[in-house]
Design brief:
Layout: H1 2-16, E1 20-25, H2 30-34, H3 36-44, E2 48-53, H4 66-82, E3 87-90, H5 102-115, E4 119-122, H6 130-144, E5 163-167, E6 184-187, H7 192-200, H8 203-213, H9 217-233, E7 238-243, H10 254-259, E8 263-265
Parallel strand pairs: 1-2, 1-4, 2-3, 4-5
Antiparallel strand pairs: 5-7, 6-7, 6-8
Helix pairs in contact: 4-7, 5-6, 7-9
The chain binds zinc ion.
């Protein structure tokens, strides 16, 4: 008798939870580097997918003005999102100056409330750039604050607090060179071409590296790292994640519940 009750309870949770996932990072191309394969799997599972960046990537150039490169990179990010039918948003902060302050927290909270995702992916709390680390902290607070009434935010609160996952830092290490070990991997072997196609849409960055390195380092580095994570997970290509399990956040691993055998627990 216990088993049917359990199934009914699960069904209830899935029907009341909105199938909306958000990947929110610092720069255009960050999401493509660390979680595009997983976002593609969510899309295939029928989820609405949003990709957002705190900044427009306005320092990612050696030739254009801030205005020009911002316009170019936002267009590239929207083109990349389009590959999996996702929607791109930019919160219009500035590269190198993503801060943990009142304005940033309020604006990010308003944005997350307007999307009201059930699952959020963001930057690793330990990463090569402080911009990435502060994005991670701001998003953590904005998710926690999604249901808090007395904030200086126009968009009404929503509940429950979304499930939150940290993606891999650049090259899987912290600033002291220590490996950042994922607590789970998502097998993206079937999505690697989609991930590559999305990343290739960031032409300004790809061409910049191509000029410097004389090889397609942009795509090669992504595949190399996804291959390393894949090897650790016992599959061809993988993306690594750690779930935010602090007080107030959901404790169940919804990634595993949605993607099943494609999630390999470390
Ligand atoms: Zn970045």
């Amino acid at each position: 008798m216990g088993r049917p009750e359990k199934i009914n309870l699960l069904r209830l949770i899935y029907t009341t939870m909105e199938k909306i996932v958000l990947g929110i990072f610092t720069h255009p191309d960050d999401a493509e580097m660390v979680c595009a394969g997983t976002l593609s799997l969510f899309r295939k599972a029928g989820w609405e997918v949003h990709i957002a960046t705190m900044a427009p990537g306005d320092k990612g150039t050696a030739e254009y003005s801030r205005e020009e490169i911002s316009r170019i990179r936002k267009k590239e990010a929207a083109n990349a999102a389009e590959v999996i039918g996702a929607t791109y948003h930019c919160l219009e902060f500035e590269d190198v100056y993503v801060l943990y302050d009142r304005e940033t927290i309020n604006k990010t909270t308003a944005f997350i409330r307007s999307i009201h995702p059930s699952v959020v992916f963001t930057a690793s709390p330990n990463d090569y750039m402080v911009d990435h680390e502060l994005t991670s902290m701001v998003v953590q607070t904005a998710c926690f604050a999604s249901g808090i009434k007395n904030m200086e935010v126009d968009v009404p609160p929503y509940e429950p607090v979304p499930h939150m996952y940290y993606c891999d830092p650049m090259e899987g290490k912290d600033i002291l060179g220590k490996p950042v070990i994922p607590s789970m991997y998502v097998n993206i072997s079937g999505e690697i071409e989609v991930k590559e196609k999305m990343l290739a849409r960031h032409e300004s960055q790809r061409n910049w590296l191509l000029t410097h390195h004389k090889i397609d380092e942009y795509i090669l580095a992504m595949k190399r790292f996804a291959g390393e994570r894949g090897k650790e997970a016992g599959v061809e290509f993988a993306e690594g994640f750690r779930q935010h399990l602090g007080h107030g956040f959901p404790q169940n691993n919804i990634l595993k519940e949605i993607l099943g055998n494609l999630v390999v627990i470390n």
